[in-house]
Amino acid sequence: MSGFGTECAEIVRAARPGDYRVGMVLGSGLGQLADEVEDAVRIPYARLTGFPVSSVSSHGSELVAGRLGDVPVVVLSGRAHYYEGGGADVMRTPLEALKALGCDTLLLTNAAGSLRQEFAPGTPMLISDHINWSGLNPLIGEESDRRFLDMSAAYDPDFRARLRELAAEEEIALGEGVYMWFSGPSFETPAEIRMAKQLGADAVGMSTVPEVILARYLGLRVAAISTITNYGAGLQAHGLSHEETKSTALMAVDALKRLIRRFVKDLGNA
């Protein structure tokens, strides 16, 4: 673990003492979830050495530490992406800080494009697995044998099963599928979308996969949910835009709030 991750954890503990259990990373349009945190302190990324400040309009750049119910949580409201600076490991220090704060679980959210007709815009999709189409990896340059990371169950099967159960109880139509990571920032072409469908992807996006790899490297258990904000290129009548991504992501916020609250409470009772 880098010194920056430990140093940042000390800054958070100085502002709000204690150990934490669950870390979260919030994607496009989902920053409202950070407002659910109680007894919270908010620390801008700019105050935390090694934390990247996102240039994406739909992303915040602050760490929120507090409680969801009785469970101590740390929320990263906004992420930086590979396409912003060309580093697949851009979120390494923030995730190392979560680990240093005591988190053993990471919940990720993102916005994604659907490749399946039944996953309409506004639908949450539980990620069951991913395809790293970019070929990039945040562990490139690691020198120990730990870099040869087992990714056969990267998205924790027990977490996925529990999220499905909780979604059913909350009457939330939760899809489940494979997420394919493209580097961005341009949206995919219709030909790339046809390829992605042939390769077994159910949704496409520009984030999350590097964070999952880093989280598993750090020993964190992972769950991830995409908010479907559009159909992939060639699958809808109109073109793609970031404005659509931002506005449609808001459609799923209330359902995600309920699901995440239940999930975190469940972890606290485990």
Low-confidence segments: none
CATH class descriptor:
Alpha Beta
Structural class: alpha/beta
Physical arrangement of strands within the biggest beta sheet: 5-8-7-6-9
Structure description:
The structure is a single chain. With 270 residues, the protein is an alpha/beta fold. It has one domain (3-269): Rossmann fold, CATH 3.40.50. It contains eight helices and nine strands. A five-stranded mixed barrel has the order 5-8-7-6-9. β7 (175-181), α5 and β8 (203-205) form a beta-alpha-beta unit. α1 crosses α3 (92-100). The longest helix has 17 residues, at 253-269. It is globular, with a radius of gyration of 17 Å.
Layout of secondary structure:
Elements (H helix, E strand, L loop, with lengths): L2 H13 L6 E5 L11 E7 L17 E7 L2 E7 L4 H4 L6 H9 L4 E10 L9 E8 L25 H13 L5 E7 L8 H9 L4 E3 L3 H9 L3 E11 L10 H8 L3 H17 L1
Helix pairs in contact: 1-3
In short:
The chain is 30% helix and 24% strand. With 270 residues, it is α/β, with parallel strands linked by helices.
Features:
five-stranded mixed beta barrel, single chain, 9 strands, 270 residues, Rossmann fold, alpha/beta, globular, 30% helix
